[in-house]
Amino acid sequence: MASEPTEHIAETLLKQTASTIFREKVKQRPLLLRPTSPDPDLNARSKRQYERLQKAKKQRKSNKPKPLSAKQKRALSIHEIPKEQQKYAIYEPLHRMWCAYMREILGVSDGKRSYVDANSAGPVLVSADYHGALVEVVRSRCGSRVGARGIVVKDTKFTFEVVTVKDELKIMPKEHTVFRFEVPFERKENCGEVPKPLVFDIHGNQFEARAPDRANRKFRQHFDPDL
């Protein structure tokens, strides 16, 4: 007789638990429905818009030219100077323009000054453009390079390419080399004797960078023991 109340209580608890689970998990659970067949007009309009955007994107890509690779540039010899243009006379006007450019950035173009201070000229020289400069090798680890002279036609990261008086293109490495160049003063009318040109010696090791990259570099005076 004592087991009957126990079975009655267990059966009641099971019914309440099942009722609670059914109410919370099934009956009161929201059912999210999505139409299986969307509006045909809306679907067609979205498809036309997507196709129109893809077509416009493809046209923009086709109009923009693809840049050449390094291999293609070498094959086309884009950065090489043709043999018929390796003439010293062609670059003499460029050298005269470069002299005027150097006089202006050094502050001696007005003719009132005939000298420059080394501390003020150093930062100017290291950030200057040397295309058109008439440079000469005065010191180098390789003795055969000393005395080589020509107008700079290409200033790369590690070399100066110059055209000599004999219409020859020579490549001068910057490493362990000292270059010398002159900046002559402009002759003006009703003036006396023209001052001697400004002479500068530059260490190639400090110029081992592309011309645009040297604009923000700082100048440091030091002795190079390797020369």
Task: Give a brief description.
The chain is of the alpha+beta class and 227 residues long. A six-stranded antiparallel β-sheet has the order 4-3-2-1-5-6.
Protein topology:
Elements: H1 3-27, H2 40-63, H3 70-76, H4 88-106, H5 118-126, E1 134-140, E2 149-155, E3 159-163, E4 169-173, E5 177-183, E6 198-203
Antiparallel strand pairs: 1-2, 1-5, 2-3, 3-4, 5-6
Keywords: Nucleus, tRNA processing
Family: Belongs to the eukaryotic/archaeal RNase P protein component 1 family.
Region (Disordered): 29-74
Number of strands: 6
- Which outline best applies? elongated
What structural class do you assign from the helix and strand content? alpha+beta
Distance between the termini: 116 Å
Mean pLDDT metric: 81
Largest beta-sheet details = 6 strands, antiparallel
Strand order of the largest sheet: 4-3-2-1-5-6
Could you tell me the strand content as a percent range?
15-25%
Q: Which series of helices and strands comes N to C?
A: HHHHHEEEEEE
Gyration radius from CA atoms, angstroms: 40 Å
Helix content: 25-40%
Helix count from the secondary structure assignment: 5
Poorly predicted regions: none
Structural features, described:
The structure is a single chain. 37% of the residues lie in helices and 16% in strands. It has helices spanning 3-27, 40-63, 70-76, 88-106, 118-126, and strands at residues 134-140, 149-155, 159-163, 169-173, 177-183, 198-203. A 6-stranded antiparallel beta sheet has the order 4-3-2-1-5-6. Strand 2 and strand 3 (159-163) form a beta hairpin. The longest helix has 25 residues, at 3-27. The radius of gyration is 40 Å and the shape is elongated.
